[in-house]
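Fold this sequence, please.
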Amino acid sequence: MKKGLVLLVFIFGNIISGMAETKLNIVPTPNKIVMGEGTFMVKRGLSISTDDVRDFSALYLQEKLNGALDFPVQITTAKGGKNTIIFITDSTIPAEGYKLTVTPENVTIASSDMGGKYYGVQTLLQLFPAGIYSGASLRLKEYPLEAVTIEDAPRFSYRGFMLDVSRTFFDLDYLRSYIDWMSAHKLNRLHLHLTDDNGWRIEIKKYPELTTKGAWRGKDELIPPTYLSGDERYGGYYTQKEMKELIKYAQERNIMIIPEFDLPGHALSSTKVFGNVTCGTTTDAPSACGEFDNVWCVGKESNFKILENILKELASIFPSPYLNIGGDEVIFDYWRQCPDCQAVMEREGFKDVEELHGYFVRRMEKIINKLGKVMMGWDDIQDFGGLNPTSTVVAWRSQSKGVESIKKGQPTIMQAAQYLYVDMQYTPAERGHSWAAIIPLDRIYSYDPLQDMELTPEEEKLVLGVQAGLWTELMQFPPRFSEYQVFPRLCAVAETGWSAKEDKNYEDFHSRLVNKHYDRLYSMGIAFRVEPPKVVYEDSELKVTLPYPSAVVRYTTDGTEPTSASKVYSGKIITNTPEDFRFSTFFSRDLHSIAVAAENVTLHHYITPKVKVETDIPIWEKSKLEDLTTYNFNKRVRTKERLQAGQTLTYIFDEPVECNTIHIPTGYTNIPFYGVSNGYVEYSYDGVNFIKGEEFYRYHAYIRNPEKGVKAVRIVITGPNDGYSCNFQNLKIE
């Protein structure tokens, strides 16, 4: 994750400014900061005093300091002394809290537990130059730390991040990076969404086919291709040995890994493997992600033994007190048609098929409790009541679902999608989903787990904390896009979970980010999202508003994206061709914002000739084929089923169209989802004879520089597309 020479240059360039700072710029902001007098000079002879030389926090601090300083730092059990960082045990300090004291003589970190000790170290590191996180040698001969006392403890005990590793598989090195990044922000729960329709990611020794077959998707695999996996075999999994090693890595950094085995829906990767665990009925109802046959049958008693065996192995792998069963977005149509499920309804006296969901959840709860664990699940699990009072709900659908859960007496973690789903777009111009909300940084920072709640003091205790979530169907490309979506939004969530509500202030938070914390994120190797400038065109002038005072904005005048070599914006730009300008904020040579144009200038002047559309592809009943003739780029036409080889869709113009480029987009607007993954485009000058053009690449194809007017454009399907259906769009003709 390191960036070589560019990173080193950047780090050294920022050391001096860091030394001159008087504002601490700590993220998340501590509960109490009292500045003292004088400085503690970090210099040769510095040692770390602790009761146990094998203590991880001490070793971690030693590693960071040895990387930054021009001299070695020793760990000793000797008590006190000058020029020493001293760890102290103080039972009066709250769990995970610490007291960091810097005086001219020494530095002390007092805590009552391992978590507090580790977090005291993290705060101490934030007093050093940002480059201390890089692993690159800063060779500091000495460094002044301002005298200060920081008393700090978390607001909530649960401060989490959910990572979906089913849709996009992240290798162990990448997970370790996320653990490092989380722990630096005092987050303490990593919720791994290990199974879904699109891949099974954890080894179960009793059922090896769950990973030999269920962990892979593609053209010839058990799981069909989705999310641009296409014809290539895509997937992976973690062995039990690997996961246990990762758990230890996380534990050392005060992070608990919580496994999620999603049931009874979102389960194609397991139902396909076992085959006979479904209802054996047909339905036209796909899952929320478009997959069929993905729901476990509730009426087959043998299923519960299989599930118990799987949960037993998960319980043996993960020391976490929680086993998460998901329980969300179940398609009840399967159960409604199933004789076995109907027999359960009759036996139990259920009047509605949805009651089978509550029955299933309670069966899982008993199994999990028997294993000595607490059941956790999405807020769907509490819809039918009857849960054990320890069973823990993750409220995702809305804030009100969290209130509902708490009123039923369930411990609850707040993950309201409208604020905390970081796969959502930052702005309408950027990639990501928007179904829950557009979530800019200030919106996610504004969230409070207790907002819009009228709770008693006892009910408030049931709010365990807060969690952000990243669903990863859009993360397969470009590389490291997950970091763009997650940071700096996860910094905001960390502050929500840790800092006192009255201490939160967005302007101050943003100031801390841009003054120092962005430097830290960069040194950690995080490809975080850089804020673009705002640009408007008024009175023949392009007026640029910087996203923060020190931002460097570069621009081009030919419609191309700016590079690190592009001209730096420094003042007034007068022009009659504002549509040709693009602007980006550059944090470093290799890290910059998206390119933007003036908000009030139309970027493209598309040609809109009269056109009709013909196809032999079954179209979803709620779609209208004529929507592809409107040149409304928010319109999409959805197919009824997965595309098949030999199918075509043809755009026929009334008259041949003279143009430079015809862009044929498919899928969703602005996100790579449900488009043509196997096919090509061809075009005709006379409407009869066609010339083969480009293959579709990531759901897009182009006709470039045709020799004369184009009479027709045809999409030819050569194989099944990723996803159970496809969206076609209007042509973009220039």
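The longest strand covers residues 32-42. Residues 4-152 form a domain with the Chitobiase; domain 2 fold (CATH 3.30.379.10).
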